[in-house]
Sequence to fold (1192 residues):
Amino acid sequence: MGASNPVSGIHFELNGESVHVVPNLGERLSETLRERLDRRDVKIGCNAGDCGACSVLVNGDTVCACLMPAQQASGQKVETLAGLVKDDDHAKALMERFQDHGAAQCGICTPGMMVSAVALLRDTPVPTEQQVKDGLAGVLCRCTGYRKIIDAILGVPSTLDGMGGAGGSMRRLDGIDKVTGVEAFGDDVAPSGTLEVRVVRSPYPRASFVFGDLDGWCASTAGMEAVLTVADISGKNCFGVIPDFADQPVFAEDIARFRGEAVAAVVGTPEAIRAFGPENFPVTWTELDNVTAVDEAQVAGAPQLHPARAGNLMCRGFVKTGDADAALQAADVTVEGAFSTSFVEHGYIEPEAGFAEVVNGRVEIHACTQAPVMDLEAMATILGMDRSQIRIVPTGVGGGFGSKLDISVQPFLALAALKTGQPVRITYSRQESMQSTTKRHPAEIKLKIGAKKDGRLSGFRFAGDFNTGAYASWGPTVANRVPVHASGPYRISDYIATANGIHTNCPPSGAFRGFGVPQSGIAQESLFDDLAEKLEIDPLEFRILNALEDGTPTVCGQVFSQGVGAKACLEALRPAWDHERKAADAFNAASTGSLRRGVGLAAGWYGCGNTSLPNPSTIKAGLRADGRVVLHQGAMDIGQGANTVISQIFATALGVSATDVELIGSDTDVTPDAGKTSASRQTFVSGNAARLSGEDMRAKILRHVNLSEDATLAFESGAVLVTDAGKTHKIDLTGMEPDSEGYVIRSSGTYDPPTKPLDENGQGIPYAQFGYAAQLAVIEVDEALGTINPIKFVAAHDVGKAINPMLVEGQVQGGIAQGLGMALMEEYLPGRTENLHDYLIPTIGDIPPIETLIIEVPDAHGPYGAKGLGEHVLIPTAPSLLNAIKYATGVRVYSVPVTPSRLRQAIKGRTND
Amino acid sequence: MPYLAPINTEEAFRFLESNNPRIVAGGTDYFPSLRQGQIDDDLLDVSRLGELQGVTRTDAGWRIGGATTWTTIAHAPLPPAFDALKLAALEVGARQIQNQGTIAGNICNASPAADGVPPLLALNAMVEIGSVGGRRMVGLSDFITGVRQIDLKPGEMVVALHIPDISETATSSFSKLGSRKHLVISIVMVAAVVEVKAGKLTDVRIAVGSCSPVAKRLPELEARLVGQAVGDLGDIDFGCGQALAPLSPISDVRGSDEYRLDVVTEICRRVVVDACKGN
Fold:
């Protein structure tokens, strides 16, 4: 013995088969599995052991494949999800139960979750909830809020009802690929060995820079194929999601405006990219003065980000009605406060990634995205190419939450493919994903609210500065949405609200679930509690008294004659509000130590779709001669469930089950524009387009047989059977002439929500519909440590009509988890929390049970009455937690996240201890 | 360079001497330390060294091989004085990290927030270091000399941790304070090993992590608590006098220095009380 064990090639057992590979020295097992053995069901989220997406079993033990040298697997038994679901009974059962519960949303964490669950169930076939949490604590999920995952592993009965139409809880139509690891995300589509792109980024918040001899460096660096700079951009070196504000370069020119901004990119073989160190790239940096906070950015002499935007003011949103100051003067009581929030990172587990190639002279970009057609438009501008020469093929999206609305990897991929003529791929590291992509705007908010003794609101004055970072991105949308929504879902006659978007040398702030409304909701809903306290009115009854109703104007002067569900949501919380407060009071009365319980509530509303702007979606479908109905579903499913919901709506309109419909996913060559997955618009807007398309197809079919609207349809091979009044007619499709896409009958529906522009005071019709929400949080505070233990949420959401109640619950739970993170732990600090161990998102142990109360106040504009939901859910969460903290401790907290350190400080300020 | 994963310790020492490679065992700190795409030319995998594996009883106490994983430690049959170490083992990341991460890796990474260090300090752990030149033992408190700094010379590696004999009736506990439930780098952590006889503390050892560059014992507090009745622990000022003098917390994203000093006394009290309860 004692001989050295130099390993060049290694053998191990992979999913029951013996494999032999020759990894690089110290290569991560995850890379070996993905790139050498094509096991792309092993997902990469962080390469640091922080997210657990790459979990595999080695000799039955769960490990992060990203942290294991491949050579350590030599002679061992390695199992991945793809193998487990074929051979392991636990995995097979989990595969079903994950689908039954909607436990996989985007699906990027699902392999890690299921692999961890298999290890748990092998040890503990009937685990407790706590054992599930301990067993799965190493895997982060950003979509589900974990509760459905816990339910699936515990095997609690599912709520599926077998219905495939609008209103039915059915499995996701795209779920099977997610629970088997087949779903291909941005990094999963490129063949191994493809040329890779690496971006060179500014190490400083603001810096000038000069390149050295790039050509010489490239020529002398082994395996390096090309360097990309602004010189390679044939179109405009500028993009932005809002045309009037487009200001962001693909590659910074002369000055980089934030840490992590791209200035160049290198393209090379995988070996060359592996060896590449940005410190060796020929660029010389000169760090310049910078501003990172909105107050600094507005002082005279501060560095200016964009010459045309004086004082670093990007834009201002404004809404005014009545006379807020006079009403505040006339109020019997007033409250005010200054609130601040932090940058929040989207924290999807899938970093931006993609693949591109030139096919017949056209550039085809496969990447994760929420907005394929916007990507197409941006790329046409950047590349200076006609849109017809570009194809966007979205991959699976491992979470988006707003940030994947903006382009990220797309221009680098396209430029590299065009310059080298070869296929290329890119995957952002976790750090560069966090450094360079958009964030939630930090807000500095001053708010004063008044009320009369009878509890009626009297005056509301809101002023917010939103740190929009170096570039506009969706900052203008935030600035415009906030004043429209800052009132909350309440009747306020005298109101003034301004929201400024201020540039700083920080990463661009953009879209993040709620577009600024979660920030304004924190201020408004916190002060509503304070107001109720001063008025000595129950805070729930105070909200109900002031809630918007049908026929009462919003602060924009918009009057809904129907569909306003604010009061219904609040009223639904009455039983829990009574019960939970009694329980908390009893707990506190009995508590002799430092634990205090608190109950808090908050409401919210959110306008679905673009603010006073055109916002159409088109959904087309075709009937093939073989009797198959094909739905061209271009509404990006980023985990929320659009593939299923849009199909359910279409199927209902057509008169079949969603399981009868064949889905064609988003691809700018084959699906019409269903707009972006943003603004909680897909169920509402694309859902309406799907309904119109389904109705169109149904009408065309019925026209063939001239039967009444009551007829039922059935599709069989080569025919449609139409039954009415007991008589069945058969439409033979085989003799019909198919069109170029193979369809004998085709249909299309386009819907654009009716809105009207806002005037200079923000008066008008910003949205065709709002959704409404009210949530209640129960927490336990350890006053001695400042820690908060969430115990329960009750969430009432008016969705108009729950197209798929199971998916509604999934959205509610996931939104609450993000709201909880924003409230209690999440704080992105450029340069300091650029990874998933310093930037904390909730783990499976942090999310308590969530009871969802689905409220259905139908909306006349919504498909079957449905309203949007995705963003509404996290708006009330943070303020409900802050109000619960106040209830428990008597302390009003004005800034988030409320870390233990901050809460303890506030508590000490209260008691002077 | 071939990948070297020897099974013989002397061979590992020779390679250390000749090549000065980086050492990898569980990989949980090694891989995150690499630049994107980086691969080391010289790497010594110590995970197959038999001598570095497992927990064994020795004449003088217990020996924990350096490459023993946290999962192994958490399930090892050990007296109650090790409960603090076992609790810490179950708070190192989550299952994945516990299955991979090793005890020597934890101390060699020398993070102020290394979960294993406070319980090991409370157990008076010694570090066995080996090289071609032979073996030496050094106390853990002397081994970790600063943030990311350890007393390890070129050619040396940690072979094992040694825990001196400790009373079978000594009990212990551990607590970690963080901003979320799992996968968290602690704001403050405390380990305590105590012995209680006739309701009074006869031996007290308290170690605090994340409040100084290197986790520290609190000797003055320990001395003050010896002789106290367990029932009186609620009334004692754990922050009295110079009890917290060894600590020098910093303010960072996880919490302020002031906060750390504020809560550490309460956590010390809770952990000592918990330790007194035994199993």
Summary: Chain B touches chain A through 57 residues (CB under 8 Å). The domain at 171-276 of chain B is CATH 3.30.390.50 (Enolase-like; domain 1). The mean pLDDT of chain B is 96. Residues 257-277 of chain B form the longest helix (21 residues).
